[in-house]
Amino acid sequence: MKKILKSEKEMDKFASSVAKKIKPGDVLALKGDLGSGKTTFTKGLARAMGIKKSIQSPTFVLLRPYDVGKKIAKEKCIKMLVHVDAYRIDEPDELLDIGLVEFINDPASVVVIEWADKIKKILPRGRTKWIKFKLGTALNERIVETKN
Amino acid sequence: MKILGIETSCDETALAVVEARGQDFFVRKNLVYSQIPIHEKFGGVVPEVAARAHVEKLPILLEELGNKNGKGIDAIAAVNGPGLVTSLRVGVELGKALAFLWDKPLVDVNHIEAHIIANWLTKKNIKLIKFPSLALVVSGGHTELILMKKKGEYKKIGQTLDDAAGEAFDKVAKIFNLGYPGGPIISEWAKRGNPQAIDFPRPLVNKPNFDFSFSGLKTAVLYEAKKNSTKLNNKKYIADVCASFQEAAVDTLVAKTIRAAEKHNVKSIMLAGGVSANEWLRKEMKIAVKKYLPKVNVIVPELKYTGDNAAMVALTGALKAREKKFTKFEKIGVDPNLSLG
Lengths: 148, 341
Description:
The complex is a heterodimer. Chain A contains five helices and seven strands. Chain A is α/β, with parallel strands linked by helices. Chain A has a single domain (9-120), classed as P-loop containing nucleotide triphosphate hydrolases (Rossmann fold). In chain A, a hairpin with a 6-residue loop joins β6 and β7. Chain A is globular. By secondary structure, chain B is α/β, with parallel strands linked by helices. A five-stranded mixed beta sheet of chain B has the order 3-2-1-4-5, with helices on both faces. A five-stranded mixed beta sheet of chain B has the order 8-7-6-9-10, with helices on both faces. Chain A binds chain B through residues 34-35, 39-40, 43, 54-57, 59-65, 87-91, 93-94, 97-99, 135, 139, and chain B through 10, 42-49, 51, 82-86, 140-142, 159-164, 167, 171, 174-175, 211, 215, 218-219, 222-223, 226, 336-337.
């Protein structure tokens, strides 16, 4: 499914719709260039999951875990949203050292990964949902693409 | 009191010895092994490479330090966060090993606090630091405003909501393929450019809070580059983009700092972290403070103490050791997301 989002607000809405369908253990793999909307999407997703803390870029520490809001935690049995950034990663194995696999295999976590195409080979096939981001033709326009 | 400091939180491997005598601090040794050449080809720090390089470089630095049995050292200070988890672990493990081997107490040090404390390493700074004080901590991984009502008391009153300022410099450098790290490269290019050439956004600058946002600024630079894809080899154009981007980033940092300083009635403003080496930021901050808050002192760390170094860690360790804030070496752990205040 392809969608054209005309503003940050629409990206927010799209993130909320993804959050509604999210299941514990899901891995959201985000793919797209610098500035294509991955961080904005992640912020929207976090807000929709009841996270009040600001979502700071994990580029420096590679991974930041957040406790999800109580309501979502209860409704969906999800405890944590883990925000990963593979921007600086060259070898997927590098992320194994910092505990990514533990989070991916934790049934109570949802993992959202920016630049996921760089670490494709360590992502679990069945549970990974890919979202592609592209710049649109107009200035604030973004194109997102999901399977199914 | 003499403290050995260990810093391995990111891409610099560093050891230092600082002696604290009353209000005087002396840096006896300050060794930094930069991994920048190793990471340059990747356009950023690669965690596993960084950790491995720390393991390789620490023994070399330890040898250079020339202290085989810990003689004259009173305590050991190691950074335990924030930073890259694997890199932090290497430094903390060395700290534990030396503390055990030499039978010395161990102090854990917060990397952000150490960057602020770096301002005390320079004698002429010390008398200018008046409380309450506001620290702007800016680096590749952090952009925070920390209020200190008194020495050792920290309260975070603002921070970036997305990218750190230094990260924005790195990413803009990447957009134009200028190299890594982006900070010094962009400010070099900016010297030949016109800061008014392009009117980049100043995100959140009119919001009443003290938070920052640099992700949108990076995107604006990206749009600019896409719009002018034929000019990407034009040096004057790149210089203009760099100068205008730097101006927008610095403007935002200065405006928020001034507003926070006003609200909290601070008597001094300190800069800290790698981006505090940026000449434009230093200059603009001093001009703005002189204009709007003429009674407030602006303190900047010496250039050699802006980036990651172990002298700042050793001094922070010394201040904690004086208050007997030691950590048992069995109990010290690392926290990649450790925060201050």
